[in-house]
Design goal:
With 323 residues, the chain is of the alpha/beta class. It is 44% helix and 16% strand.
């Protein structure tokens, strides 16, 4: 029996539902900023970058797991995003996510997130388990639909990061590995993007991915800070890490003989249960509207637009959800 640890990056300001499954290890992301007592592991012990939470996002948990834990297989998911190992096929949106309202008992059963034996059999039968890649041609950006992964990300120029980061990123990848660099060019010129950093992989592969990601990210972090490209977009490094994740999986699929299995990724809109029946039904209605009209919403309410931000404020106020 393999030792499998799937680390769940948890927000310190959200009391998310815990899944009763020993394979999941919840870790407080940016625990160095948590002033409340907790029995949950934090990413601020040992060799850590917990203080970079605001820019590196869930990668502070990934780094902590890389430097401070041991297991045969290592995984990462987020407090609201989980891989489902179910044999059922669920409806997805254009970003290849299965949209679900609440992370609660019924949804945990629905997606078999508590099925330890099923998860172990899938994980041990493969070298890497990842979410499915999305066709960016069907995913709108603030600058419309794009035909390549690179153009898709550049469509978020000034929203997620400064597009002048891209040439610097490629230079740093090339300096790290010529082989991975060639995959990076192919991946970014292609139309299939794999984001969200949710995976389970053999420990040696995980170590190799982390060495690649953090070697490039730490170097790039210093370079873009010197040029001031991170001032308007402080979460640049988190998005860069997501791009590097997609590139690395592309590398595994096209340059190695690793057994890579794709499974569906579930997004939970709310991970805390409401405190009243009225709020529960209100949120259910809002979830239904969002999930069924999201694709139209992206076209009518482009990301970073004033009208989208206005609607988001109303939505978060009604659901009392933290942005």
């Amino acid at each position: 029996m393999s030792n499998i640890k799937i680390f769940v990056s948890r927000r310190i300001d959200v009391n998310s539902t815990r899944i009763d499954n020993p394979l999941y290890v919840p870790v407080r992301c940016g625990a160095v900023y948590d002033d409340k007592p907790s029995d949950m592991l934090g990413d601020d012990t040992g060799d850590n970058i917990s203080g970079r939470r605001n820019s590196f996002c869930e990668f502070t948990v990934e780094y902590w797991a890389w430097k401070n834990t041991k297991s045969d297989y290592v995984g990462l998911c987020h407090y609201r995003r989980y891989l489902t190992f179910s044999t059922r096929n669920f409806k997805e949106n254009n970003m290849r996510q299965v949209m679900e309202g609440y992370l609660n008992g019924p949804s945990i059963k629905k997606y078999e997130l508590d099925n330890v034996k099923l998860m172990e059999s899938v994980i041990e039968g493969n070298d890497v388990v990842v979410n499915c890649a999305a066709d960016v041609e069907g995913v709108p950006t603030p600058k419309g639909f794009q035909k390549s992964v690179c153009a898709h990300w550049e469509g978020y120029d000034g929203v997620y990061f400064d597009k002048r980061v891209f040439p610097m990123l490629l230079d740093d990848i090339k300096a790290y590995s010529a082989d991975i660099y060639s995959c990076a060019v192919e991946c970014l010129e292609g139309k299939y993007h794999r984001g969200y950093n949710c995976y389970v992989m053999r420990r040696d592969i995980f170590d190799k991915m982390c060495d690649f990601q953090f070697s490039v990210m730490f170097k790039l972090e210093k370079e873009i800070h010197e040029k001031g490209y991170d001032i308007a977009c402080p979460r640049t490094m988190g998005y860069v890490g997501e791009i590097l994740y997609g590139i690395f999986i592309y590398y595994l699929q096209h340059r190695t003989d690793c057994r890579v299995k794709e499974v569906q990724l579930v997004y939970f809109e709310q991970t805390e249960m409401p405190d009243s029946r009225w709020k529960y039904f209100l949120e259910k209605i809002l979830f239904w509207v969002k999930f069924n009209f999201e694709d139209i919403g992206y076209a009518l309410l482009p990301k970073a637009s004033k009208r989208r931000n206005f609607v988001k404020k109303i939505y978060f106020r009604l659901t009392k959800r933290k942005n």
